[in-house]
Amino acid sequence: MLRILISIALLFAYVTETKGSAEWVSFKLFGVNGSKALDFIKMSDINSVIIRNAGLHFYYSIINKITENNSLLINNLTIGNNGYLWLATPFGIEKRTNIDTIKYSYKTRNVYDVTIDFNDNKWFASDSGLIKFDNINWTLFNKENSGFPAVKIWHICTSTKGDIWTVFSDSGSIGRFDGKVWKFYNSTQTGIKALGMDIRIVSDTSGRIWLR
Question: Which pTM value belongs to this model?
Fold first, then answer.
């Protein structure tokens, strides 16, 4: 019994220790009302990572430490080949470089998601439809020109086959764009009864699409 109590005490001390061992370093995450839930972690370069706090939409940059920015609200972000950050925010699209921030407000303010395809085109899910930016021109795909089943798009991903996949809000459907033709799938076809804003979509290395 004594050995068990000593083991529990050592375990508690290890968990509450913030310094960690020589191999592990622990960082304190800032939050409000005790919330520390993480939505994603993405690599920016070999020495830095970006963490988003899902509940509070906090943005963290870590380079041997965590820096908190309470003023930046983001829905999602991705990192381009040149290391620039592309952010989907409630106030439009932002491109962040090492020296400045460029803000875009093409056709919409509320942008929910962002991805980059193999040709370096940027795609944005928004409350006005799907936005494409080829680094020069902007294109909007919506109900009028593409037959979308809903106006808003919540989530998007690029498959390893090069297709763009979208999750439409409150329509019970997802879409696939092969660069020329749109195809839509509903709840009956996918077997998922409640397709909508809470459905996330990703592609694996084989090009298969996963919904959760």
Answer: 0.74
User: Cα Rg for the chain, rounded, in angstroms?
Assistant: 20
Tokens of 202: 């990703």
DSSP codes joined into one string, 133-148: E-SS-EEEE-HHHH--
pLDDT tens string 161-198:
899 999 987 667 889 999 999 999 887 777 766 665 56
Question: Whole-angstrom Cα distance, residue 54 to residue 63?
Answer: 21
Token code pair at residue 20? 């960690």
Residue 10, SS3?
helix
Checking 193-198 for CB contacts under 8 A at 24+ apart, the result is 195/167, 195/168, 195/171, 196/154, 196/167, 196/168, 196/169, 196/170, 196/171, 196/172, 197/154, 197/155, 197/167, 197/169, 197/170
Position 175: which residue type?
Answer: G
